[in-house]
Please model this.
Amino acid sequence: MIGDESFPASLLDLPAVVESYKTYDDSVLIKTADIGQMIMVRDENDPAPEGVEYKHGLTPPMRDARRRRFRREPDLNADLVKQVEKHLINIMHGVSVSILFTGAIC
Model:
């Protein structure tokens, strides 16, 4: 609320942590904070952002940062993950690798 006027706001997670620095003598920088969230204030007519993560950063070079700079999560087959997990547990318990793969010698 500013004066008598109120504005809608949203708390959003940034796609990357931003470090802020402070200087007292224009030569030595002192790290003051790691910023991971921001408050987005908008007009009443503007729609609320989708989700809790802001896909852009704070500066123009970080536009669409989530898509451009970070890998997509891999599409993993749940059955394959369970099978590999089971094989790893068996190997840790001392079962021979060649027995696990139906006669294949590794």
Observations:
- The longest strand covers residues 9-23.
- The chain has two domains: 1-72, 74-106.
- Residues 34 and 106 are 48 Å apart (CA to CA).
- The mean pLDDT is 83.
